[in-house]
Amino acid sequence: MNKNDQRITTLDEPGAEGAEVVAETVAPAPASLGKKKTVGKGDVVVAGDGMSGRKLRVTIHQGQDDLGREPVFVGLNGYSYLIKRGEEVEVPEEVVAILQSAVQSHFENTKAGLIERKVPRHSMSVRAV
């Protein structure tokens, strides 16, 4: 499998956990299918899963510390995505929306008191397919 290819598989499939899947999309097949389905790059997600079917390309940039080099997990409508940092991957636009809405609270002690700043959780680049 090419490192930029994506694959949908059930979570109970052997090898669906751990380092081997960090560059892939891992998701359970919708219950209505009753079987596993492999989806190649650029294919539309099966209708009825609550997603639009539109895809975007995203690169989540690496951070300074060890946590900033770990893959990023996103869960949506029963689907799980492990996105490897530093590599451009194709994901549903709903996954990108989740990543864009993820923020961290940073607190700063000032003379006026404690101030909370919300900053993006992930530094990333997004482009159309």
Q: For the terminal residues, how far apart are their CA atoms?
A: 20 Å
Task: Provide the gyration radius in Å.
Answer: 17 Å
- Amount of helix: under 10%
State mean pLDDT (0 to 100 scale).
73
Estimated share of beta-strand residues = 25-35%
Structural class: mainly beta
What count of helical segments does DSSP give? 1
Largest sheet: 3 strands, antiparallel
| SSE pattern | EEEEEHEEE
Which stretches are low in confidence, meaning pLDDT under 50 for 5 or more residues running? 4-47
Give a count of the beta strands, DSSP E runs of length 2 or more: 8
Quickly count the domains: 1
Task: Trace the largest sheet across and list its strands.
Answer: 1-4-3
Overall shape: elongated
Summarize the structure.
This protein has 129 residues and is mainly beta. It has 1 helix and 8 strands. It has one domain.
Chain-wise SSE layout:
Layout lengths: L24 E2 L28 E6 L11 E5 L2 E5 L5 E4 H9 L1 E8 L2 E8 L3 E5 L1
